[in-house]
Amino acid sequence: MELTTVWFVLIAVLWTGYFVLEGFDFGVGVLLPFVARDEAERRTVIASIGPVWDGNEVWLLVAGGATFAAFPEWYATLFSGFYLPLFLILLALIARGVALEYRSKSDHTRGWDRAFFWGSLVPAFLWGVAFANIVHGVPLDASHEYTGNLFTLLNPYALLGGAATLTLFTFHGAVFLALRTQGELRATATRLGRQAGLLTLLVGGVFLVLTQLDSGRPATWVTAGVAAAGILAALVATARGRDGWAFTANAVAIVAITATLFGNLWPDVMPALDPANSLNVTNAASTPYTLTVMTWVAAIFTPVVLLYQGWTYWVFRKRLTVGP
Amino acid sequence: MDALDLSRWQFGITTVYHFLFVPLTIGLSLLVAGLQTAWHRTGNPAYLRLTRFWGKLFLINFAMGVVTGIVQEFQFGMNWSEYSRFVGDIFGAPLAMEGLIAFFMESTFLGLWIFGWDRLKPRVHLATIWLASIGTAVSAYFILAANSWMQHPVGYRLNPTTGRAELTDIWAVLTNSTTLVTFPHVIFGAFVTAGAFMIGISVWQLARGRDVALFRTSARLAMVVSLVAAVGVAVSGHWQAQIMTEQQPMKMAAAEALWEDETSAGFSLFAVGDVENGRNHVNLQIPGGLSLLATNSLDGKVEGINDIQARYQALYGPGDYRPIVGLAYWSFRLMIGFGALAALLALAGLWFTRRGRFPRNPWFTRIALLGISLPFLANSLGWIFTEMGRQPWAVFGLMRTSAAVSPGADVLEVALTLVGFTLVYAVLAAIEVRLLIKYVRLGPEPETGTEPAEPLPALSY
User: Fold this and answer.
1) Lowest-confidence segment of A156-160, B228-232, B241-245 by average pLDDT
2) Is residue B388 part of a domain?
3) Does chain A have fewer CB atoms within 10 Å around its N or its C terminus?
């Protein structure tokens, strides 16, 4: 396999890891005001992601860093082009991170809860907007600079993509909460999960069909089908109280959706509306030497990271009880 | 102001702000790991209480470092897309390694440390804080390797077709002489920073008269660490200056307001310059001092600004290759001055706390509290010096800052994000400082008994 292919796949894997892991962090944030009735429940909800959210967010930083190293042109065009949405995402992630760490230490718990809610909702929505635009293509000039503006990005298809990731991550958060809690809290999470799951099936389904009609290819019809089946299976498992299966099925769905998006993208990384200006894995890539170095680094350290992150989830596997 | 100026201000503000939290994270994580090790070894509950007290303050600071670090990862692409295209082949590699090797390590193991008090075996739990702490230092290494490449590009070639810099030797980049001297300087600086933080708060607690035995321990620990680290900062800074004289003579000359090539150049203590005419009105010097520091010889030759400017024009074509001399000169001096004061404070503290004594003088308490700011000022000025001193280059000798900015950068958009980040950062600074003060006032948790096996609640949430 060519190294550029390896790195395209690796970056897809990093985004997949990010969406599967931080996806439920976002969902927990969006659900907080609806799932918890009092301070003790809110504390439990936040404790469910407490030990892991920061490690989950590193998937984004590594996806960014890996894009910079392997496809500098992609990194440069994407982040200078999607300037204001990215600015909003950064502000949201700042507010959210500080809220998670400071809420219990500060006297203004409710204010931090609002920051956590919005800080989760905004990126959960905007990542969908961003990826819908990436897959559909945006106006780029011959030197690969983005020539549109903020409103070019906020087109109906991209907004639907935002709604799709928002509902998907919310469902993911509900399923995760059901898995990590018990009693009243778990029951509420399950109930909200059913609603969020049905919504995801509807909004996500329309988005996937439109995406496939726009840029689909045979292989990604299959992954899109897997995604729909995953969400459906997660819904069924939720209804039957099989929380572990529900979470697994929805995680598979997120993997399949990310695979669909990246599968449609290939071999472009940033298609332009005028195909002559598109960035692809060849013209956006670093030199073979850099890619070789980075392949070795990734081959050695990725398994190590997976091991210790996996171990973290094992350590904190016990369901949480609502404390006094 | 145009998009370039605004982008430069934005990079300066977000980076200096981020680096307020980084050194404290690096230094304090190791001190906390040391305290927990002491508890683990001796079973003395005093060390546990210290671990948890300083650990809480460490976490309040760490959160800010994390969230401001996200901006760092993306702003190269946002505001400096031409730079990213030009250097991505080289600069991206250490950045990606930092994420994969260091960021995962710090964040994952810190999560385990915070929540693992009653879930992990004591020995495993101790290992988590050490791993998190090592992660912070590894992270510093990679980002300094990336920055050092901008100061002194190595291990690359220029592709004549694309006009881009391409990596030819990753080891050359990771063992760049500039990195090797900058890393100890930054790490020792981080220990002075954590030391001053710990000294100021411990001395204040001592003056308050609660838990005096406890805080005498942390005060003495911090004073020794600060003092030893300050020596390390000075020595590594000296190496840096020698390498800088060789690699970036213009920066060194500007730092010294040295206008003409000189043998036996003096070390300037106070100068009033005339940039227009390239000379000083007033210059108070230690004779031969600069030559000695820069070349290890009293009559070594040090290049001056006017001469370098002429040479660079011949080499790189017409242009102004001088940084803002006054800024370089004063940031360099003040960095050294504030650092020296921090060392002096640690030394005075050791004297005041000698042989079981407590500092009772209220003036010393006030000075120690104010002294917390000294290393923060020195760190910030050090970065301002080294980055502003490199101008007009983004990558020394290869790419000018004016050519690095995103071509599509819209003045209004950059202004908006500049104001946005600055406002949010200001609010967060106020919140963070208030929270730190609150937890300093609360003091350490009461003793929970001497059984080390007793489960302890998680540190937060």
Assistant:
1) B241-245
2) yes
3) C
CB B420 to CB A55 under 8 A?
Answer: no
Asked if the Cβ–Cβ distance from B431 to A102 is below 8 Å, we say: yes
At B452, is the pLDDT very low, low, confident or very high (cuts 50, 70, 90)?
very low
Tell me whether residues B461 and A43 touch, CB distance under 8 A.
yes
Provide, as residue numbers in chain A, all residues whose Cβ is less than 8 Å from the Cβ of B109. Answer: 308
pLDDT at residue B392 in the model: 94
Residues B44 and B178 in one domain: yes
Q: Which of B304, B320, B336 is the last residue of a domain?
A: B320
Q: Which of residues 96-155 of A touch B (CB under 8 A)?
A: 97-98, 100-106, 143, 145-147
pLDDT of residue A127 exceeding 50:
yes
Q: What percentage of chain A exceeds 70 in pLDDT?
A: 100
For residues B307 and B195, state if they share a domain.
Answer: no
Tell me, yes or no, whether B457 lies in a domain.
Answer: no
- Check A316 against B97: CB less than 8 A apart: no
A-chain residues near B458 (CB < 8 A): 47, 50
Give the pLDDT band (50/70/90) at residue B456. Answer: low
The pLDDT of B208-231, averaged and rounded, is 94
List the single residue in A with minimal CA-CA distance to B75: A79
Residues B410 and B356 in one domain: yes
Mean pLDDT of B116-144: 95
Contact A301 B101 (CB under 8 A): yes
How close, in Å, is residue B397 to chain A by CA atoms?
Answer: 21
- pLDDT tens-place string over residues B427-436: 999 999 999 9
Give the structural domain span for B140.
Answer: 3-247+323-442
Asked whether residue B173 is domain-assigned, the answer is yes
The residue from B320, B350, B381 where one domain ends is B320
Instruction: Tell me whether A316 touches chain B (CB under 8 Å).
Output: yes
* CB contacts, 8 Å: A287 with chain B: 89, 166-167
Are both B218 and B115 inside the same structural domain? yes
CB-based burial label for B104 (10 Å; 0-12, 13-18, 19+): buried
- The pLDDT, as a whole number, for residue B450 is 47
Same domain, B268 and B283: yes
Q: Which domains does chain A have, with CATH numbers?
A: 3-315 (1.20.1630)
Provide, as residue numbers in chain A, all residues whose Cβ is less than 8 Å from the Cβ of B87.
Answer: 72
